[in-house]
Amino acid sequence: MTTVSPPAAPAVTAAGAARIVGLSLGHTTLAEADHWIRALKPAPVLACTHLVTVPFPHVAISLLTAQPVETAPELAQAATEAAGGRFGRAVRFPGSERLTGSLTVSEILQRSSIGRVEVLGSGTADPALVVDTGDFVRPQFRNGELVLVTTPAAGGRLVPFETRHPTPCCADH
Amino acid sequence: MEHSGRRARHRVRRPGKNEVAVLQQFENAYDGSLLPTTNTTAQNEAMAIAGIKFLGEQVRKRKIDGALFFANHPARRGIDSPHEIRNWRDADPTVAVGFEGAPGHQAAGIPAPNGRGGARGYYDNNPSAASFAGYPLESYRTWGGFDWMTATVGGLWDSLLAEGKAWWITVNSDSHVNYLDQTDRGPGSDFNANGKYNDPVYTGAINTQAGDFWPGYYGRTSVGASSFSYKAVMDGLRAGRVWVDHGRLIKNLDARVRVTGDRRSTTGTPLGGVLQVKRGTSTELVLDIDLQDIPNWAGFVPVLKRVDVIVGTVTGAVSDKDAYTTPNTRVVKSFEITKTNGRISLSYDLGRLDKPFYLRVRGTDGNRTQAGLMGPAVDPHGPQLDVVGAADPWGDLWFYTNPVWVLPR
User: Fold this and answer.
1) Which tens digits make up the pLDDT trace of A85-108?
2) pTM here?
3) B275 vs chain A: nearest CA distance in angstroms?
4) ipTM of the assembly?
5) What is the DSSP string of B87-155?
6) Is residue A89 a contact partner of residue A48, using CB atoms and an 8 Å limit?
7) How many CA atoms, within 13 angstroms, populate the side-chain half-sphere of residue B62?
8) In chain A, what residues touch B140 (CB-CB under 8 Å)?
9) pLDDT at residue A3 greater than cutoff 60
């Protein structure tokens, strides 16, 4: 198995049906790729980023969509890698728009297709723990399951491992 | 010391008449931020190697007396792959000698409202296009304030030491904008145009959002040097005669590996050194630590609670240059410290030499520990994952030494 399938994906190949496609616009950062994904209309059911190294290190994208997509020929290999990627970082996924504010682990599991919430270095998170989402939730596929990794934060809460504004390289010099 | 755009290194050079010219040449030719974003990983890596070789060349041509390269915050963005670190070392081991064991920016996790409430060390990043894909998420965070590469017993640093090659750790304030500073960069500053910021001006406020401490305020790199000259300090750094601590946890440390029973003050192999003895010779670690007796800059006298001895087999060169673990390194002994002042002398019998090995030492105030990432059999009481927004650095103090090797003659 090389492709990613969310629970509701139909396997039909008739024209116009949603299918997983890979593409690359040569985005150099996750933020750029996220921005492009979030501007898509209609919003795809599922959109993931993939860190690829060909032809140079950059961010490629996979989408579950019925829309046509195009990739420049020199980036085709990256698009292919993204389409077959098994560890995509999900930017849009079922329920993603409902993961805002502070939610318990249990609520996150109920509201979205995230299958598991973990605490870095500790294993599965207690369902009662509160996650301050910061309105920025980027779970990752692992063995076909969407997993959100969190880290402990002040006040006994959790925060998603990935934050919206990580410290940039060589900050503020 | 200075940073090259895309990744921070500090390079140490001894002041001399060609220093500025060499620095300018180096920055112009090897600044990572000037490389095209369409470069492949191999192209970027080759540039770094060329930069190290350039520095070594300047020393051989006697343009400068010495140059040292330490990688800052190596795990912070996952961009320094294990093979890249090995390649730096092998490009010129007289120049590329180590990395930060702990990053600067240690005030960044001080809780709001007194502090920034961010991530200790500014380690709040995640895998990016430039990251080595093999690094686990754990590597992007600090552990007891230290970088995962160093904090993990049996981890990346140990996998380098197990090759029987030198690789040292330092700590560094990475001071740019300091916690509680009452000044700000002068108005109208233009770093890109002027190469510096304008002189600081008083603001009338205190900066609680800054993540850095003043140099020496929290992190210290202690170097065994034969004199206070720049050259002597650099020689000590290059030799690995170095230990590091946070919050002035200890006052002084003298670690030597000795042939068992030879306690003469003039003998013993210090940190960074290699003791070569015939197989079957009995050796011991003798550790003298002067406990701290004056308050640190947070205003209290730290209390050392535990000292760990870590030993690893030297297994020789790795077959996979991206290896970041080594199976035979673990904490072999923990000393619980009950004395609160004066000097403690600890010794640990290293046994009769069979396989070559190295050892290193770690100590802590004991406030925050958890089993290490390689499991409790390797490290039962290692440093704990730092908590975002609740990482008071004064409440979690560690010291680390560099290694000593014992090899058969």
Assistant:
1) 999 999 999 999 999 999 999 999
2) 0.93
3) 37
4) 0.90
5) HHHHH-TTTEEEEEEE-S-TTTTPPTTTS--S-GGG------TTS-TT--GGGGS-BTTB-HHHHSTTS
6) yes
7) 0
8) 161
9) no
In a domain, B357, yes or no: yes
Collapse the DSSP code of A148 into the 3-class scheme (helix H, G, I; strand E, B; otherwise coil) and give the result.
strand
Domain boundaries, position B218: 9-176+212-408
Instruction: Give the rounded distance of the alpha carbon of B280 from its chain centre.
Output: 33
Q: Which residues of B touch A147 (CB under 8 A)?
A: none
Round to whole Å and give the CA distance between A173 and B199.
Answer: 14
* Contact call for A169 and B37, based on CB within 8 A: no
Task: Confirm whether B113 is domain-assigned.
Answer: yes
> In chain A, where do the E strands start and end?
19-27, 46-52, 58-65, 89-92, 102-104, 116-119, 123-124, 130-132, 140-142, 145-153, 157-160
Query: What is the number of domains present in chain B?
Result: 1
- Contact status, residue A64 vs residue A20, Cβ threshold 8 Å: yes
Task: Report whether pLDDT(B4) > 60.
Answer: no
Distance from the A104 Cα atom to the nearest Cα atom in chain B, whole angstroms: 18
Cα separation, A51 vs A87, in Å, equals 9
B interface test, pick of A161, A164, A165 with most B CB neighbours within 10 Å:
A161
pLDDT at A8 over 60: no
Residue B259 lies in a domain: yes
Cβ atoms < 10 Å from Cβ of B163: 18
Which are the contacts of B151, defined by CB distance < 8 A and separation ≥ 6? B142, B143, B144, B372, B382, B383
Q: The tokens 């090259």 sit on which residue?
A: B4
On the question of a cis peptide bond just before residue A42, with omega within 30 degrees of 0, the verdict is yes
Within a domain: B196? no
